[in-house]
Amino acid sequence: MATASWRCVRPPSVAVRRAATTAWRLHAAAGESSSSAGPTPPLRLHPAKKLPPRVEHVIVETGGALRTLLPKAISGEPSVDETTVKQLVAIGAVYYATKPPPRDLTGVKRALRPKRVTECDLFCAQGSYLRVHVHPKRGPGVGDVDWVKCVIHQGDDYVVVDKPPGVSVNMTVDNAVECLSHQIANALIGDENKKILNDSDEDSEIYPSWTSLEPLKVVHRLDVCTSGVMMFAKSETKFARHFHDALRSRRVQKAYKCVTERKPKLGIMEHWTEENVQSSPRRHDMYPLDADVDKPWLEGNIDALDGSDANGRKRCVLRVTHVEEIIVGDDITLRDDVKSIIPTGQTLYEATVELVTGRTHQIRAQFAAHGAPLLGDVLYGGRSLCFGEAYDSNIPPRVLDSSDKLCLQSAAMTVLVAGEGESKSHETDGQTWHAGPPWWRRTRVRV
């Protein structure tokens, strides 16, 4: 007897968070026919392919094992078979709940929300619910990185890493494997415990499954396209609380490097900032401070940095401490993939920036507000470093993805010693860690 199920198909242009608002429809999974052009090979997750987003919502009519149920419930091309299910579970793209959740999860307790499936042999009861990200967003460059060399230092309860560009820090809703936290966790285990991924073997598992490692705890973040120094806590340790205390008391100092086509001014940049929810895509707008606005933080009152203006905008402050000229064609350290896009003889400017506050997109938005958007930052008006786009000066703003190249690096991070009355000291207090040369320099060694 054909198994009937409910499914919701997400159009490619709709974001994952909006999948629950699309229409649900009834279909007979076993009754749908293949394309007239003949069936294509079943879906495989590696080698990684860029596929349009696709989310299936399934309500189970007849209970059974997940690995045998999903191939019957999910139609379309490329088809889904038991190996596909195994790979989707391993990458963290399948969710399960004992009953269908409301379309709006606002206010729904976390315990009642769908959870990632850990076993492809999970028994799915009648009336239960599955959400399957059939085409998870991939990180195709993950396999090209020597993750062991990305580890700068580690202690008993923390690890410091040099993040390569183009990699998400934390797991995403449809991919718990191809992210920095998972790959570093895998790099920290002994070689005898690792499997080897052979991309030519289309039936092999994604390596290693998101369920096979002790996860690292994310204590702060960098954007996908930003590279450089960052830290993780090992599991639920006291270091996570200590680091958060250091962030709140502004004892964590960060220095960045970035490249622009226009020369930024040395000294302080200070703005009020807010997210422009009306723009598409959303960006963070910067508003200059009036000349008569007090700046008590310059006199040591760091609490003033948390203040807002009459419109609720947050204060943004950074310092440009150094600017170096790079002449394209003359500077032998500049990588070929930058020189092939920027005209020979043009001058670029590599700035060293000290963050005083740490707002979302702060360096990107503040530099753009001063007429010097970062190289590669098409969201804020910078020149694209993607071939094809690079020669078009009228590219509309868009959100950067893992294939974009952004000239922004977290070059160094220092944790200052805790003051009297603050949290207990930790071995990271008073330490500074440096990233390797940025990706746009030939001498980069940490990739």
Structure commentary:
By secondary structure, the chain is of the alpha+beta class. The chain folds into three domains: 4-133, no CATH class; 142-250, Pseudouridine synthase; 256-415, no CATH class. It is built from six helices and 19 strands. It has helices at 66-73, 82-91, 180-187, 238-248, 336-339, 362-369; strands spanning 4-7, 25-28, 55-59, 64-65, 94-97, 115-116, 123-124, 129-133, 151-154, 158-163, 216-218, 227-234, 252-260, 267-276, 283-288, 314-327, 347-355, 408-415, 431-434. Strand 14 (267-276) and strand 15 (283-288) form a beta hairpin. Helix 1 (66-73) crosses helix 2 (82-91). The chain is globular, with a radius of gyration of 24 Å. Mean pLDDT is 82; it is low at 1-6, 8-36 and 196-201.
Question: Which descriptors apply to this entry?
Answer:
single chain; 447 residues; alpha+beta; Pseudouridine synthase; 3 domains; four-stranded antiparallel beta sheet; 6 helices; 19 strands; disordered N terminus
Secondary structure category: alpha+beta
Helix-strand topology string: EEEEHHEEEEEEHEEHEEEEHEHEE
* Main sheet characteristics: 11 strands, mixed
Q: Give the total of domains.
A: 3
Low-confidence stretches: 1-6, 8-36, 196-201
Mean pLDDT: 82
The amount of beta strand, in percent, is 15-25%
**What is the radius of gyration?**
24 Å
Principal-axis shape equals: globular
What share of residues is helical? 10-25%
- Tally of DSSP β-strands: 19
Helical stretch tally: 6
N-end to C-end Cα span:
53 Å
